[in-house]
Amino acid sequence: MWATAVTSLALALWTPFPAHADDIRGSGGGTGTTTPPNSSSGSGGDSGPGTIGAHIRISRKASGASASTATATSSNANWKPPVCWYEPMYTPDEYEEFIKSSYKGAQEPAASYAKKRVAEDYHKGDKGLWWQVQFRNDSYTAACPVTSDNWEIWVPPAQPKADPNQLTPEILSEIAYNSTKLPKPPVVLSPSPDRLKVNLGTRVKFAGDFDRVWTTASINYKGVAMAATTVATPVALRVEAGTSDADPQTCTYDLVRGDSGYTVDSKDAACNITYRRSSGTGTYPFKASITWKVTWTASADPDGPAQQPALPDGLSTYEQNVTVKEIQAVNR
């Protein structure tokens, strides 16, 4: 029943908009469609922007350490980004135009939905806006907490109690978190990955600048302006040997803030992976993972005051094959 209602209403609600269609759809090509910003260029500059939902803009600040990035992985497997939310969309007159043009000749349940709005006279003459449900992607599923008979809500200037699914800086922070791109760990091994030695500790360090990254999700439409910025700061590096024939099999290093970003160098560390057996004709999968502490601010300023509730830590991982050889003795 839900799936049928959702599909019917979705088809009605997401029919082409009137004259302001380009403004509503933005660069994302349509409401409910996510157009992510460009991948980080590795230059440390801003990337994007992109559009999520109808009017939410995404921009990013890259680390500069690596051109290779991936969407942040949450350290909390139970954390999920919002599926849908309400965004400001129409004045009363625009909403009347939308309903009359989009629902003309509509079948049930869309026809009853349109009659419900006609009975309210679209709140014409009242101060406020109609807010419409928007989806993070095109999956119109029961995971969206918005009911199928309330795809738009009327929001007056002095709203006594906000709808729990109405867009807020907190929801924007979760959208920003889900849009965050983290660089792969810029790990350099010594000896080089194709020349690691049995019983010789493997030194780990970073190459190039490596710094925090941040992502801003913002909206500024019809007088509704808000933003949230998630800031991911690298705090620790964990490396894994990829075989039980190593002692130790894992090491974890705290990252140190230097002049040009965060660094690590295990040269004098108490822990360095040491392989006890060669990889023979094969290789071992050496893995490096960075833990990122993620905070958020209720603005476009990454240095603004941190807000609650907290977001889960982020993870970025890079795996490479390493060749381990026996140290050759020279007999004279």
Explain what you see.
This protein has 332 residues and is an alpha+beta fold. 14% of the residues lie in helices and 33% in strands. It has five helices and 19 strands. The protein has helices at 2-13, 21-25, 92-102, 110-119, 169-178, and strands at 46-52, 56-61, 69-71, 73-74, 84-90, 129-135, 152-155, 181-183, 187-190, 196-197, 203-206, 213-221, 224-240, 250-254, 256-258, 261-263, 284-297, 314-322, 324-325. Strands 1, 2, 4, 12, 13, 14, 17 and 18 form an eight-stranded antiparallel β-sheet that branches. The protein has a three-stranded antiparallel β-sheet with strand order 5-6-7. The protein has a two-stranded antiparallel sheet with strand order 3-8. The chain is elongated and about 85 Å long. The model is unreliable at 1-8 and 11-48 (pLDDT under 50).
Task: Summarize this entry quickly.
The chain is of the alpha+beta class. Helix content is 14%, strand content 33%.
Helix fraction? 10-25%
Strand content: 25-35%
Number of helices: 5
Say how many strands there are. 19
Global geometry: elongated
Structural class by sheet pairing and helices? alpha+beta
Throw out a few tags for this protein.
332 residues, 3-stranded antiparallel beta sheet, disordered N terminus, alpha+beta, 14% helix, 8-stranded antiparallel beta sheet
SSE inventory with pairings:
Elements: H1 2-13, H2 21-25, E1 46-52, E2 56-61, E3 69-71, E4 73-74, E5 84-90, H3 92-102, H4 110-119, E6 129-135, E7 152-155, H5 169-178, E8 181-183, E9 187-190, E10 196-197, E11 203-206, E12 213-221, E13 224-240, E14 250-254, E15 256-258, E16 261-263, E17 284-297, E18 314-322, E19 324-325
